[in-house]
Design goal:
Layout: H1 4-17, H2 30-41, H3 49-52, E1 56-58, E2 65-76, E3 82-92, E4 96-98, H4 100-111, E5 114-115, H5 117-132, E6 136-145, H6 146-149, E7 160-167, H7 168-171, H8 173-184
Helix pairs in contact: 1-2, 4-5
The structure holds zinc ion.
Zinc ion (ZN) binds near residues 76, 78, 79, 145 and 147.
Length: about 180
């Protein structure tokens, strides 16, 4: 659970640390505002991907399902700065399919916490594999990291791409190629 009092205290220290006057008007409400904001942007900490993906439908289909361009916002755990972009999830059903909004909600569970893009991509793939039991799953994430674009090496617009392939997608190159072709459409 998020401890808002601790966050407020931390933000006050941070403001003092950078030489701010925590009593000036513009900053009076800032610790409070940030504490509430963290409840939202780290709200995935209390989420349960298993619960999100528990609503499934029986289906005979075995063709690839691709849910693409799922927009997400997350926070890099090294700098606590945002990284954001799109996640694409493909799976080969094996008797069950998920409601389409459920994949997007699964992304939220793992995005709304301090993260690494590589780990988030892997966790989403693992969650779909575990809770939907498909023949295979492939997840591709492309994101811009503010810790790379507003500080450090400052390369605006550069994107980091990570992917995870499980089951049939791991073994079958043709399936992977089909996934990339479908992404281009
Ligand atoms: Zn970073």
């Amino acid at each position: 659970m998020i401890d808002q009092e601790k966050i407020k205290e931390g933000v006050r220290l941070l403001l003092e640390g950078i030489g701010e006057d925590i009593c000036r008007e513009g900053l009076m409400e800032t610790p409070d505002r940030i504490a509430r904001m963290y409840g939202e942007i780290c709200g995935g900490m209390d989420g349960d991907a298993g619960e999100v993906l528990s609503k499934t439908f029986i289906s005979e289909r075995t063709e690839m399902v691709l849910e693409k361009d799922i927009v997400f916002y997350s926070m890099c755990e090294h700098h606590m700065l945002p990284f954001f972009g799109r996640v694409h999830i493909a799976y080969i059903p094996d008797g069950r399919i998920a409601g389409l909004s459920k994949l997007a909600r699964c992304v939220e569970v793992y995005a709304k916490r301090l993260q690494l893009q590589e780990r988030m991509t892997e966790q989403i793939a693992e969650a779909v594999m575990e809770h939907l039991s498909p023949k295979g799953v492939m997840v591709l994430t492309e994101a811009e990291h503010l810790c790379m674009t507003m500080r450090g090496i400052k390369k605006p617009g550069s994107r980091t791409v990570t992917y995870a392939a499980k089951g049939a997608f791991r073994e079958n190159r043709e399936l992977q190629e089909m996934f990339f072709r479908m992404l281009e459409r």
